[in-house]
Amino acid sequence: MASVPVSHLILFIASLVIAAGVVGTITTGVDRVSAAVDDAGLDATEQLRTDVTIISDANAGVYNASDDQNVTLLIKNTGTYRLAPDGSGLDVVFDGRYVPPSAIDGKLVSADEGAAWSRGDVLRLTINANALEGYSGGLDDGDHRVYLTANGDEELFQFRVEGGN
Fold first, then answer.
1. Within a 13 Å sphere around the CA of 125, how many CA atoms are in the beta-carbon half?
2. What's the rounded Cα separation, in Å, for the pair 5 and 7?
3. According to the UniProt entry, where is the signal peptide (predicted)?
4. Which one of 7, 52, 86, 103 has the fewest beta carbons within 10 angstroms of its own beta carbon?
């Protein structure tokens, strides 16, 4: 008769050990999910706070204004998130082709040099068309598109080149 309580005690201890292992595994998994949700929340906040607007006039000669084969755009930070003052946080696609950072030059127009690109500041973004693949002789006449992305905020700018502008 004494063997029945001993076997029950052994099964009870074994079930406690298994339960402790399961609880430890579940707790670790919940911690990881919680951390991922926190990170996603921070990313979403950053994206919501980021807003840029291209304020250049498409009819005002954004291309080759000083005979240098460049496209120059004025971009205003209309969000509350502070961006890099040289435009390095922007992803630029020109006519469907990614523009490498080496072909882009950004300078703040309305703030001290070295300051962050804050709300209300304007960035002069210059794209060297000669450095782009397929445009070594400058842009052809016709419609062109510049697509900008900053922390998930997307902007599209379209302009037309006519008569060897």
1. 34
2. 6
3. none
4. 7
